[in-house]
Amino acid sequence: MNSVVTLISLHIILMTFSVQTHAKCKDIESGVLVNSTCTVVETYKSTKLTASPTLAIVLHGDSPFWNPSVQYRVAQYLAEKQENVISIGMLRPGYTDDFNKKSDGERGETVGDNYDDQRVSQVGKSIRALKKHYSAKKVVVIGHSGGAAITAKLSGDFPDLVNHAVVISCPCNINAWRKDMLKRNKYELFSGDLNISSPVELAKKVSINTKVDLIVGKDDDITKPYLTKEYYEALQKHGKNVSLHVIKGDHNIFQNEQVISTMLAAIK
């Protein structure tokens, strides 16, 4: 009898722990729960919506020194400026935002390790759940820097999911980018190659029905333009629907007027 009581008590404790752990995912507009993993989001909606809206997902960069929030500002702006859009700023796995909310998963060391298959899969499955929930007719994924690497990898790993990808300032050849960053920052965690797939290697898996917009600043010394150009050439080689825009500016072009214009066109 005592063993039965103990098992029941343990079950109650585990259920309570689960509810507490995923309390931030009780509402899909603030958190997406897939396979007991919660990914934090902020949701913004156009004033005019149909039963089948466009779903726009905005992903932030690596943000090694501060909590990211730009994805929320961009998502809110897009929803305000375009009709029939549900625009979502997504907090990447392991990150904490300015509201002290944290997505499940490991943040990593922000040296390319957090573009691995597990983190990409968490983001992709969360987007798939959102697409189903909102009956979205179109999915647009927008990412800057590290978020661009994840966006590009999603386009290859989830080819049936992404209709339009806007890839901004991308480290699209991850190990080449790591070599650049080691020279630039002298940070030893950039040493050596990671056993990780890069967007350039996944280009052939991108659907021919997916539109890809690549944007990079001509003076970007963090994700140098050649990294984006390599990905562009790989997509072209495999007959994908891709355009390349090398614009004025450095790495910090996420809210550049021309970049925002490309985003608005993508979600139209």
UniProtKB/TrEMBL annotation:
It holds the Pfam family Peptidase_S9. InterPro entries: AB_hydrolase_fold, Peptidase_S9_cat. Keywords: Hydrolase, Signal. Residues 114-251 form the Peptidase S9 prolyl oligopeptidase catalytic domain. SUPFAM superfamilies: alpha/beta-Hydrolases. Gene3D superfamilies: alpha/beta hydrolase. Residues 1-23 form the signal peptide. The keyword Hydrolase applies. One of its GO terms (molecular function) is serine-type endopeptidase activity. Coiled coil: none annotated. The keyword Signal applies. GO terms for biological process: proteolysis. This is Prolyl oligopeptidase family. It comes from Pseudoalteromonas luteoviolacea (strain 2ta16). The lineage of its organism: Bacteria, Pseudomonadati, Pseudomonadota, Gammaproteobacteria, Alteromonadales.
